[in-house]
Amino acid sequence: MSSTYFYPIGIPGQAWAPAERAQWRARQVRQRSYADDVLTAVERLRNRFDVETYGEVAYVDAQHPVETFPLMAIRSRQWDKSLPTVLITGGVHGYETSGVHGALRFVDAHAAEYAARVNLLVAPCVSPWAYERIQRWNFDALDPNRNFRAGSPAQESAALMRLIAPLLGQFAAHIDLHETTDTDESEYRPAVAARDGKPFEPATIPDGFYLVDDTANPQPAFQAAIIDAVQRVTHIAPADAQGGIIGSPLVAHGVIHYAMKELGLCAGITGARYTSTTEVYPDSPRATPEQCIAAQVAAVCAGVEFVLA
């Protein structure tokens, strides 16, 4: 049933124009530092891995000075084209904290274990402006995770696609690290309905970890290996009253399907055989921030081990 919930920007039933997007942007407050949290952590890895700036996002409008953010990637130092290549991405949605810190921790604590066995490419924070604002959208009120497509209007999405373009055909797996939070229901979904001039349809936030597999290329054994590893760290989301999770049918324990390429999702950009989007639930009374990061690390390790096996 449609809700009469009123979002405080725009006119119900009318899609936002530039003025409403600017009004939304003016409400966003910087709450943490990409330089302190991410760039400093990446710099500490430089003596063990190849580190590169793969692009820069720059934003400006009449109410804001220019803001620029370098986009960082970390590569295995012993890169060998004969080995399988795995892409790990975090922070496509900047507010999904454990994805960013899970990617960084994986590199710091575990990536060396796979030297000479697999090529690792890690983009730990795809959307730094949103990371600082603890936001899902970018500066332009666009969801990067619906804009991984040719001619993308999202700078973050376009930059990541340029990074991986020379490696297409080499990827064995791509694991994209996300969270589902209570603010998805209290803020983001009402905001997207208001932005697009559509009614807000209330939904249920799942309590626990789950995975999104690709409708066009399901890999149930890969997903099961990740679920098996993660459930040792945190709990797996059960099905809701309709037998699904976030409106999609449950196809296995903790697994749903999305049409990744059709929806413009990050996990659909490589053409890899094995792809998965992780979804941690940080607002659960049964999970701590540390467990959420550990769950992301466990997911990546399990995915890499599956590829190597």
From TrEMBL:
Q: Which Pfam families did the record assign?
A: AstE_AspA_cat
Q: What Gene3D superfamilies does UniProt report for this protein, alphabetically? A: Zn peptidases (3.40.630.10)
Q: Which CDD domains match?
A: M14_REP34-like
The superkingdom of the source organism is Bacteria
Q: Which UniProt keywords apply?
A: Hydrolase, Metal-binding, Zinc
The catalytic residues are 279 (proton donor/acceptor)
This protein's cofactor list reads: Zn(2+)
Give a yes or no for keyword Nucleotidyltransferase in this entry. Answer: no
Q: Which residues form the Peptidase M14 domain?
A: 30-309
**Family stated for the protein in its record:** Belongs to the peptidase M14 family.
Q: What is this protein called?
A: Peptidase M14 domain-containing protein
Q: What is the lineage of its organism?
A: Bacteria, Pseudomonadati, Pseudomonadota, Betaproteobacteria, Burkholderiales
